[in-house]
Amino acid sequence: MKFLVCISKVPDTTSKIGFTDNNSKFNEAGVQFIVNPYDEWYALVRALELKEANGGSVTIITVGEQSDEPVMRKALAIGADEAVRINAKSDDSFFIAKQIAEYAKNNSFDVVLCGKETINFNSAQVPATIAELLDMPLVSLATKLDINGNTATLERDVQGGSEVVEVQTPFVLSAAKGMAEQRIPNMKGIMMARSKPLNVVEPVSVEAHTEILSYELPSGKTECKYVEADKMDELIELLHNEAKVI
Fold first, then answer.
1. Contacts of 213 (CB under 8 A, 6+ apart)
2. Residue 211 in this model has a pLDDT that exceeds 60
3. What percentage of residues in the chain have a pLDDT greater than 90?
């Protein structure tokens, strides 16, 4: 079975965030980048587990520039067989999904796995758009995945609980927490990743649907007021006159 796992380069959550060009561009200087956790910890690792149990191959794909290759090498070190980089830079979800869908269409994958969202944009648009472009079923927010032959059984989160669904391959899924456990690449995997193929593919022509006009940092933390336990009247007054509902 052939798995295609979509990965994205994102800033580490401990990085200091800033912007340039009148707040219209993200400033990458000094930022540590990682594989998007939803892509790595859940989508990629579950694909590897299924490959190890049933055979097949795992290919990772990203839409990005040469600077994205270090995080791709980490995904290879974890166990992916090969990597594909679509040679383009875009923050537009449709553009990214179109590039991935075109590659998947030409290479006949059984399952396309994505993280449910990236931790920098949180739009969760790419998996559904890929499924639409490929005319495949989509299972979103999947927390479990098992495959028997051409039939996949998935569990997904829904409001108030979870549901179990079955789908025939090929299909697309977005992976949420619970799909798998994080893997740490070992030295053997890191050394082998250096020789695994990383293919660069030129993008297809497609017009982006959105553009980023500006970024804005969230407001800083406000001062906290502490009230002694025996001064309930003061607490009530503060709640009435100063507390704000956000």
1. 24
2. yes
3. 65
Provide the 10 A C-beta neighbour count for residue 181.
10
On whether the CB atoms of residues 104 and 117 are closer than 8 A, the answer is: no
Residue 170, preceding peptide bond in cis (omega within 30° of 0):
yes
Residue in the block written with tokens 């990085």: 15
The CA-atom distances, in angstroms, between 142 and each of 175, 178, 219 are: 5, 8, 33
CATH class assigned to 2-216: alpha beta
Q: Give the predicted TM-score (pTM) of the model.
A: 0.86
Question: What token pair was written down for 221?
Answer: 């933390």
Read off the pLDDT of residues 13-46 as tens digits, 9 standing for 90 and up.
888 888 998 898 888 888 999 999 999 999 999 9
Other C-beta atoms lying within 10 Å of the C-beta of residue 3: 24
**Kind and range of the H or E run holding 2:** strand 2-6
What is the C-alpha end-to-end distance of the chain, expressed in Å? 48
Do 167 and 149 contact (CB within 8 A), yes or no? Answer: no
pLDDT tens digits, one per residue of 85-121 = 999 999 999 999 999 999 999 999 999 999 999 998 8
